[in-house]
Amino acid sequence: MAAFLLPGPQTGLCLRRPSSTLLNRRSSVPETRSLLCVSCSSAKHGSGSGERECLFNEMKSIACGVLAVWALTATSPVIAASQRLPPLSTEPDRCEKAYVGNTIGQANGVYDKPIDLRFCDYTNEKSNLKGKSLAAALMSGAKFDGADMSEVVMSKAYAVGASFKGVDFSNAVLDRVNFGKANLQGAVFKNTVLSGSTFEEAQLQDAIFEDTIIGYIDLQKLCTNTTISAEGRAELGCR
């Protein structure tokens, strides 16, 4: 049993950790159940100023809260992994919202309502997407082939399975975008920010990478994509 003791009013949280056989029935190594406790307790102190005592109590409350959250995460990792995409929007004009963009989210991807562009068709759109903020937009299954998306902001967008063949992403901010299984053949990444973005199983044949801004670790991951042409690998600096 693990316990964390902090001086303060007597409070506590105990959670039983499930055995590994419950978490993974295929595991051949059983694990006994254990009890994880977070305990916040204190002994009474002598007289002191009210201000110091109030501040001390606030610090104890914050510490106990942090430990409680940690305990819940440690005992139930499924909580963090169970997030799913929201249902497809039924709004009739949801595809047209790409022409307005997300005026709230910007680089942090925070929004009051997600921009749902899933399965929308923007083929050869040359004017209405340029420079728009599509931060945290849901783009899976959408078609942007031949579109001008220069200077667009797509921070934290979800573009799994989307098609961007021949799209111009010049001067765009595409950080932390999930391009898994997306078709990016012939896409132009000129002076484009790609830091934190993932391209697992993406098609990158004939994609142009000129003065691309990307972190070293992200670059190493991108270079493992075998569909990138020899010229593209040279532009990226793949070894």
Descriptive keywords:
three-stranded mixed β-sheet, Pectate Lyase C-like, 2 domains, 239 residues, alpha/beta, two-stranded parallel ribbon
Structure description:
The chain is globular. The chain contains five helices and five strands. It is 20% helix and 9% strand. It folds into two domains: 5-81, no CATH class; 92-239, E3 ubiquitin-protein ligase SopA (Pectate Lyase C-like), CATH 2.160.20.80. The strands form two sheets. It has a three-stranded mixed beta sheet with strand order 1-3-2, covered by helices on one side. It is of the alpha/beta class and 239 residues long. This is Thylakoid lumenal 17.4 kDa protein, chloroplastic. InterPro entries: 5peptide_repeat (IPR001646). It comes from Trapa natans.
* CATH T-level topology of the largest domain: Pectate Lyase C-like
Please write the string of helix (H) and strand (E) elements. EEHEHHEEHH
Count the domains. Answer: 2
- Record the strand order, biggest sheet: 1-3-2
Give the low-pLDDT segments: 1-45, 66-82
Average of the residue pLDDT scores:
76
Q: Can you identify the CATH superfamily of the largest domain?
A: E3 ubiquitin-protein ligase SopA
- Note the main sheet: 3 strands, mixed
* CATH architecture assignment name of the largest domain: 3 Solenoid
Instruction: Sum up the overall morphology in one term.
Output: globular
Q: Whole-number radius of gyration?
A: 25 Å
How many extended strands?
5
The first-to-last residue Cα distance is 49 Å
Structural class: alpha/beta
Summarize the amount of helix as a percent range.
10-25%
Task: Report strand %.
Answer: 5-15%
Protein name: Thylakoid lumenal 17.4 kDa protein, chloroplastic
Organism: Trapa natans (Water chestnut)
InterPro entries: 5peptide_repeat
Keywords: Repeat
